[in-house]
Write a structure and sequence with these properties.
It is an enzyme of class 2 (transferase). The chain is built from 16 helices and 31 strands. With 615 residues, it is an alpha+beta fold. A nine-stranded mixed β-sheet has the order 3-26-4-25-24-5-8-10-9, with helices on both faces.
């Protein structure tokens, strides 16, 4: 009786429902539930105490690039990004663990301090790197699906917050969790925002079993489906009729066309009265005659126009776009006098069965050629990711991948930028998860890292893949276009400011003593700066300029901020006020107990209508 089992164990509620005379008569409702769901929602609400610390030495073109690579656990990273990137991401692509029984689910712990928990379970080594970020989720453990759902739920909720109102998320998955993921996404994004379930034919070779499984899925959801009328793509032009049969829903009306409208009838042909089969047109006023491929004079026609508003705008000399965003090139008459509309094709209707992008081994070989080693097996196809990017992004959007893995998403973004002259940027997130030298599939990757002189972690391979992809793309840039192939590296770390009720303070007096200077020892200025940017809700790619002990910040809206981390006096305050920034932030320790200077600063900023914060 399979219906009384759930995740390998007897579900006693179902057992009672089948065999007991005492059956609950409470109204039933359709919903997705599992063990640990309420705790997963609790985890979602817990604010992070972490921050993102810049690592310039591992970056490429740190000062100029708009791309970001973040090394760290993705749940905490997503929380750290909430304020700065809320409603900012156009597209998310993730390739999470498929929960095959041989892969892993992250140890999200709901009560114990995460550092203590990881140390206790041996997940963090002496060097501080995560030795195993994901624990094995065996099918026999009794919470097989629940563990996976608990891992995914908070991450998807946080990801949704980051999406723009016209943003989309693609999620790769296979049969193990496809059913659960669909229900989970319906809950998180709303089933009304389901766009499509795409089928990717992996074109596998020999397989065992009743059926050969050649495909995986990519679930596609919109943040708001109402903001998506079409899918971008296509080239050339479209010719479509601009009249229909006259009916109650498409009533007859008059429209006056100017002289000189394109007319494909033979020279001298004139149409009079009412003509056409089912789509009737009547000449109301003027002469409807073709001369040199154009209408001879102004003519008023009556018909069942389907695009009358666009016709009015077009003949008034305005640029016109249809409901799919396709530009109207012209309205013209066919040889039979039927009005047609010619548009630039800028949208497509792709099938849910994706094109064949080649066997997985092809993409493994391509990556091997780039890296000179087999560092990842079965990376996602760059052409598939490039299609997703083309369909739903514009010319300068942000794309997020918080299960970055081999770095295929970042690579695909750089490729499409080159091919189409775009300036899309990426945020890639990947754990510094240690590779296992005893794992036959990872030996070559471990050796690759050792040869580079870097820790043997997945994140190190991801960064190197993006570096090499950028170099390769620059070599292909024959037109010498300005391309951004760099990336800023940030690492998830503890806050650089002391936390209230720190576990190392043994008394209130000691706690208060700590907060005379709330900056942790040996904290670098740049580390403090970027933590403050996140607290202010500013992006990590803000323009930063350092001058005369002041960090000047300019955001994407051209608003200016001044951040004081080293020194403060009357002259410095006056120089800041003269520039009139939106906000000024200063460290409390800079005042060194000089309350008069602090109060004066507050009053001067208030008089200048500048927001002033002391931390």
């Amino acid at each position: 009786m399979p219906e009384i089992f759930s995740e390998g164990k007897i579900d006693f509620d179902k057992f009672q429902q089948l065999f007991s005379d005492n059956i609950s008569t409470k109204p039933d409702r359709y919903h997705l539930n599992w063990a640990g769901k309420s705790q997963a929602y609790q985890q979602l609400q817990i604010p992070t105490q972490k921050t993102l610390t810049p690592c310039v030495e591992e970056s490429v073109d740190f000062e100029q690039t708009q791309n970001i690579f973040i090394e760290g656990e993705n749940l905490e990273v997503l929380k750290a990004l909430q304020k700065s990137y809320f409603n900012s991401i156009k597209m998310i692509y993730i390739d999470p663990p498929y929960n095959t029984g041989n892969d892993f689910v992250y140890n999200d712990n709901f009560a114990q301090n995460q550092t203590d928990y990881q140390a206790q379970t041996g997940e963090i080594g002496e060097d501080g790197f995560l030795k195993k970020a994901f624990r094995k989720n065996a099918k026999e453990n009794g919470h097989f699906h629940s563990n996976w759902l608990n891992m995914m739920l908070p991450r998807l909720h946080l990801a949704r917050n980051l999406l723009k109102d016209d943003g989309v998320i693609f999620i790769s998955i296979d049969d193990n969790e496809q059913a659960q993921l669909k229900l989970l996404c319906d809950e998180v994004f709303g089933e009304e925002n389901f766009v499509a379930e795409l089928i990717w034919d992996k074109q596998h070779s020999q397989q065992q079993g009743l059926f050969k499984t050649y495909h995986e899925y990519v679930l596609l959801y919109a943040k708001n489906i109402n903001n998506h009328k079409n899918i971008k793509g296509g080239t050339g032009v479209i010719d479509a009729g601009a009249i229909k049969k006259i009916s109650k829903s498409n009533p007859e009306s008059e429209f006056t066309f100017p002289a000189g409208v394109k007319f494909e009838a033979k020279d001298g042909v004139e149409l009079k009265g009412t003509f056409g089969d089912s789509e009737k047109v009547t000449v109301v006023k003027g002469c409807f005659r073709a001369i040199n491929g154009r209408t001879l004079e102004e003519v008023t026609l009556s018909a069942g126009w389907t695009q009358k508003k666009q016709m009015t705008e077009f003949f008034a000399g305005n640029e016109v776009y249809d409901t799919k965003g396709q530009k109207v090139i012209e309205f013209y008459f066919s040889s039979t006098g039927k009005l047609k509309c010619r548009k630039e094709r800028t949208s497509i209707t792709p099938p849910t069965l994706l094109p064949k992008y080649g066997m997985s081994s092809l993409h493994t070989d391509n990556l091997k050629e780039l890296m000179n080693a087999t560092v990842f097996n079965n990376p996602k196809p760059l052409p598939m990711l490039s299609d997703f990017i083309r369909w739903f992004t514009g010319r300068a959007d942000i794309i997020l991948d918080f299960f970055s893995g081999s770095g295929s998403t970042a690579h695909a973004i750089l490729e499409t930028n080159l091919a189409e002259g775009k300036k899309n940027t990426f945020i890639s997130v990947q754990l510094a998860e240690s590779l296992n030298v005893d794992n036959e599939d990872q030996k070559e990757a471990v050796e690759f890292c050792l040869n580079l002189g870097v820790p043997a972690t997945i994140a190190e391979i991801t960064k190197e893949r993006i570096r090499r992809a950028g170099s390769q793309i620059l070599q292909k840039n024959e037109e010498n276009r300005p391309l951004d192939v760099g990336f800023k590296v940030f690492k998830l770390t503890d806050s650089h400011f002391k936390q209230w009720q720190s576990p190392i303070a043994e008394s209130l007096a000691e706690q208060l003593e700590m907060f005379i200077d709330n900056v942790k020892e040996n904290t670098e200025l740049q580390a403090m700066l970027y933590e403050i940017l996140l607290r202010l809700g500013l992006k990590l790619t803000c323009n930063v300029r350092y001058e005369n002990n002041i960090f000047w910040i300019e955001d994407e809206k051209s608003q200016h901020y001044a951040i004081l981390l080293e020194h403060i006096d009357e002259n410095l305050l006056n120089s800041v006020i003269n520039v009139q920034p939106q906000k000024v932030v200063a460290l409390d320790r800079l005042f060194a107990g000089n309350d008069a200077l602090k109060k004066n600063a507050e009053l001067q900023m208030k008089d200048a209508n500048i927001a002033f914060f002391v931390i």
